[in-house]
Design brief:
Helices cover about 5% and strands about 40% of the residues. With about 475 residues, the protein is mostly beta strands. It has 2 domains: about 40-155, Sandwich (Immunoglobulin-like); about 155-460. The chain has a 26-stranded parallel beta sheet that branches. The protein has a 5-stranded antiparallel beta sheet with strand order 1-3-8-5-6, with no helix packed on it. A hairpin with a 2-residue loop joins strand 5 and strand 6 (about 95-100). The chain is elongated, with a radius of gyration of 33 Å. The termini are far apart. The model is unreliable at about 1-30 (pLDDT under 50).
């Protein structure tokens, strides 16, 4: 009997201990959330800002983190958009999308991921307008913390596969977003007034069979660019990447195109001039920029081209590629510091199949990373085709021994300065405001550049008394070569 009592007692004790242990575990699982008003969340940012966003086109996604840096868990009875979702902002909290979230736990030392997007409704306004909202975090203590949400909206005009078959003028009140293609038909002229902004979607391009007239100004240039307004990284806008859209093609039937104060950048190519009669003006481009393209910045086959006071810079192929024809380049900067892959020479001249009747470069800069930025290609079959080119009052990045020292002051090279690494300032250091870490390129000259004072006073006096940015060229002894005066 005594032994049986002992066994029953032991069994009861074990059962009681087990039940007590289970109770302890159950109590352990019920978190005790702090209600102290001193226990607060921390955020990786206090404001989520979006760059300008075209109406009806959704933004990219931005991320911020919410931290509980305390030593006790927090329960959030509510996380909500202050507008209730009416502002156009959308949020996702740790994988859940809604306008309000309830009973969200943030354990001590843990964090939440919050993703934010926005789509802006049209307002029929010309100028950008500001959208605001906030994401509010209500704690059990009654404290409400918030992260501000901001975006600028911009109404735009959509052009999708548009063909202009009659004379048309576009004005600069609102930007245009181009999908697929923009075509100027035969015998039609498309005129662009100052301030026009053409944003091309990926792969979209412009083809001109008729005539393009673009008259911008220093203050309000005409801009051709991609439609991505956001950043790839914090320091790198998509607008500084190449190949964001196609480019502009002037077909064989297109003549008398005139571009003044135009900025073309970040395309697959800049302007491609198809083969035409070289006794009629194909393209005049002045006070303009073609920059950062995957192919040629400007290419021409057997055309009559004038480039004045302009910058053709950073091309995956060539800044200027000429095959035959009649080309004049005055007070312009051809500089190839293309950063994305292999690049061609800044300037390529050829008479293959087409006679190069004239390639005249005056008061200009031809430079880049390599030791020779001038590519000369003669026709290998017909050696009687004209191959006429000349440089005067230029800064050239070419080896002296490739042309002979005695020709530097006569013949094809007249009063030319060589842009050599032997000089204190040369090649990319001609332009001290370039920042290759963030892919920002400003082609203003250094005071020690060989381009300073290298220009021809007659070119400045008779053709371009002001540089591309409107600065007067006659304030010192001699004008500077290139598109910009120091």
């Amino acid at each position: 009997m005594h032994k049986m009592f002992h066994k029953l007692y032991s069994l009861f004790f074990c059962l009681l201990t087990g039940i007590f242990s289970i109770g302890l575990v159950a109590c352990d699982d019920e978190e005790s959330y702090t209600t102290s008003p001193l226990a607060l969340l921390s955020f990786s940012t206090d404001t989520v800002r979006f760059d300008t966003i075209f109406t009806t086109i959704g933004s990219t996604t931005q991320l911020f983190k919410v931290y509980n840096r305390g030593d006790e868990p927090l329960m959030l009875p509510s996380i909500r958009l202050a507008s209730g979702g009416e502002s156009g902002f959308r949020v996702n909290v740790d994988g859940m999308s809604d306008t309000e979230f309830t009973d969200v736990e943030v354990r001590d030392g843990d964090s939440l991921y919050v993703f934010v997007e926005v789509t802006v409704d049209p307002r029929d306004e010309d100028n950008p307008f500001l959208l605001r909202d906030s994401l509010q975090f209500l704690l059990q203590s009654g404290v409400c913390q918030q992260v501000q949400l901001e975006a600028y909206g911009q109404d735009m005009i959509v052009l999708r596969g548009t063909i202009f078959s009659t004379d048309t003028t576009l004005t600069g009140e609102r930007p245009y977003v181009v999908y697929d293609s923009l075509v100027v038909d035969n015998n039609a002229t498309l005129s662009l007034t100052e301030g026009v902004r053409l944003h091309f979607h990926s792969g979209a391009f412009m083809r001109v069979h008729g005539t393009l007239k673009a008259e911008g100004s220093v203050e309000r240039p005409i801009v051709f660019r991609g439609d991505r307004l956001d950043n790839l990284f914090d320091y790198l806008p998509y607008d500084r990447l190449d190949n964001q859209w196609g480019g502009i093609t002037l077909s064989a039937s297109s003549y008398d195109n005139y571009l003044n104060h135009v900025d073309i950048h970040s395309g697959g190519w800049g302007i491609q001039c198809d083969s035409s009669a070289s006794d009629r003006n194909k393209l005049t481009i002045e006070n303009s920029v073609i920059h950062n393209v995957a192919g040629n910045a400007l290419s021409a086959i057997n055309g009559r081209i004038w480039v004045g006071n302009s910058e053709l810079t950073n091309a995956g192929s060539h800044c200027l590629k000429v095959r035959g024809g009649d080309v004049q380049v005055v007070h312009s900067t051809l500089a190839n510091f293309y950063p994305w892959a292999y690049r061609g020479a800044a300037l390529s001249l050829s008479n293959e199949l087409c006679p190069l009747t004239r390639a005249d470069f005056r008061s200009s800069i031809v430079t880049g990373y390599s030791s020779n930025e001038l590519m000369l290609v003669r026709d290998k079959v017909v050696d009687t085709l004209a191959f006429n080119y000349r440089f005067s009052h230029c800064l050239l990045n070419i080896p002296v021994d490739s042309i002979g020292a005695d020709t530097l002051s006569d013949g094809r090279y007249y009063r030319v300065r060589i842009d050599s690494v032997e000089h204190e300032v040369s090649r990319i250091t001609n332009f001290p405001l370039i920042d290759t870490d963030i892919f920002y390129y400003d082609f203003s000259l250094d005071s020690l550049s060989g381009a300073v004072g290298a220009g021809n006073p007659e070119d400045a006096l008779n053709l371009y008394p002001f540089d591309r940015l409107g600065r007067i060229r006659s304030e010192d002894e001699a004008p500077d070569a290139g598109a910009r005066e120091l």
